[in-house]
Amino acid sequence: QVQLVESGGGSVQAGGSMNLSCAASKFNYSRSCMGWFRQAPGKEREGVATMHAYYSEDWYADSVKGRFTISQDNAKNTLYLQMNSLKPEDTAVYYCVVRPSPYGPCASVEYNFWGRGTQVTVSS
């Protein structure tokens, strides 16, 4: 069973930065889509950023373009989300997701493995 464990969440003031990590166990990221979703209180869950482990097809939600960067470290089997210029509207629980052997573009596939999430709170 794939296990995804997020870390790096917490509280920060607007304009600050935060780096989320997602460590995968019992799983190899190669040939997989991976990414980050988030869910704010009272709102639907939304995609934030996705990427393919091998092909260059990074995708970002319009709301985070230019501020967030998704990346991976294959040697550590870890996915990252660097978040800069954070805004109060970025406050949410952030989830790491993986889709092994995807059937389409990473921005549009359904993700079948999810971490438990890490809280990010941005104060004004």
What would you note in describing this structure?
By secondary structure, this protein is mainly beta. 0% of the residues lie in helices and 51% in strands. The protein has strands at 3-7, 10-13, 18-25, 32-39, 46-52, 59-60, 68-73, 78-83, 92-100, 113-114, 118-123. Strands 2, 4, 5, 6, 9, 10 and 11 form a seven-stranded mixed β-sheet that branches. The chain is globular and about 40 Å long. The termini are far apart.
Quick description:
The chain is mainly β and 124 residues long. Helices cover 0% and strands 51% of the residues.
Q: Any chance you could write out the topology, listing elements then pairs?
A:
Blueprint: E1 3-7, E2 10-13, E3 18-25, E4 32-39, E5 46-52, E6 59-60, E7 68-73, E8 78-83, E9 92-100, E10 113-114, E11 118-123
